[in-house]
Structures are given as C-alpha cells and as structure tokens.
Please model this.
Amino acid sequence: MTRLRKMMLEELQRRHFSEHTIRYYIRTVEDFARHFNRRPDRLGLRHIREYQAELFQKRKLSSGTVTNYLAALRFFYIKTLKKAWSVAETPYPKKTHRLPAILSQEEVARLIDAARTPFHRTLLMTLYATGLRCAELTHLRVSDIDSKRMVIHVQGGKGRRDRDVMLSPKLLDELRQHWRRLRGKNSDWLFPGNRWHTADYPIDEKTPRHACQGAAKCAALNHAIHPHTLRHCFATHLLEAGADLRTIQMLLGHSSLKETTVYLHLSKRHLSATPSPLDSLPLKDESPQEG
Model:
C-alpha cells in the first residue's frame, strides 16, 4: 500500500465513511493517477479539468457519475493533501433530472413469474415487496426477518441509517420456501454468496441485476430493468394505493421528503385526479368548418 493510499484510507475511516464509499473514492483517485501516469499529488487543476472532460466526452458518463468522481478528488485534495480546492474552477456538472421508468403491476407480475431460477424469483419479490436498495438487499441477514412484528430490519442503509419496512405475508411464505431450498443453513446471510449459495458472505450486487435483466428478457419487457426499477415501482404503486408521502419516505429511507415527491409525477392516481385547464374552457361544441 502506497503512502498516499494509506493516508487517504485513514482520513476516510476516521470520518466513518461506508466501505462502499471508501472503495469508490480510492478507486477514483487511482484511475485519475493512471490516466496521466503520474502520482496524484503531482497533478493539479489543469489535470482535473482535463480528466473531467475525458469522463464526459470519451467515457460518456452521466453528470451524476462525474459529480461522484469529482467528490472523490475533492476529498483527496482537501482532506488528504490539505490543499485548496476551487469550486469555481472545477464546478460540479448540472444534473439531468429524468423521471424513472415505472412498470405496471401486471408487468411486475410478469417479471417475477419470468425469473430464471427460484433464487432469482425470491430476489425480485423481495425488491418489489420492500423497496430496498440493491446493497440493502444483498446485506440482509436471517435475523433481520421479524415474523412476529411482520417487519424487516434494514441495518446500515444509505447514510448509515437503520429502518424497518413491512414484511408481506406472501413474501414471508416465499422466504421460508427459499430458506428450505438453500443447501447450507450455516450462513447468517439471507442470500448467501457463491454458485451454490452456501458461502459465509452475501451475494454481490451483480446477482440482483442479472436477475432483473434475465427476467425482463424472458418476459419480453421493452424496458431496461434494474433493481432500482422495482424500488421505484414499490413507491409509485404504494402512492397509487393511497399511502401518504411521509410513510413512503420512511419506508424508502429518504432523508428528505423532497426526494420522495418525484413519485407524485409518476402516480397515475394523482395525475388523473388533476383535471386539465382545457376542460374548464367554455369552448364551442364544434370546430369551425374549413373554407
């Protein structure tokens, strides 16, 4: 381990960053240095600007991803190297706000029924029934399933916040079948890793992604389906069923209600309940005849 890497690792750990963020930040700085084939402490403002252009123009990364790269470099320069960082010279790119794709409940049912394996089916059902993030799903432990209170404990979610989500009776039945199917019962993880799901470590985040993509292909759904798609469907379908935004915010683990209001734009119930102003215009019943 190089001296700079060790220094950055210590600064990240001292601030209690998550393991995922630590890996991401260190990997970004390594990529930055590798791009110029120089030590990162010998690179300056000009190199940062050139690297940012590379991320956009050649790698075609989204504005959100580029912002994350810059956040890692900013941490490295300010906290590790104790150097100044000019926000004016290295501005974060403007975000593109796009509404997420939403499946109907019928399409979600088709997706789950098209799962390639029983293990994949359980993953898809859990994602949709709970609205968990992919990383939260993979790190569920058997002890997180509370069948007495009918809740699932989400520990160390985004922002290191714990929360509870509902445990559907249908999902509980599926999880019990899933547990009976597992070859080994020694793992603490609800979804153990390795090919036979007998490891003492959890599955990685690729497994739920592959489950979504494989089922979407088998179900002939013309959408790019990701684990987060089912999280969006969970929230939107709850809103359409009458749940209030505050409840959905708590279930999703959003720190701000502003994050949750995006689902108002996706809910058919809320859109159809708002009449168009055209409907209140006193128009004539017929259009003028063409001459």
In short: DSSP finds 13 helices and three strands in the chain. The chain has two domains: 3-80, 105-272.
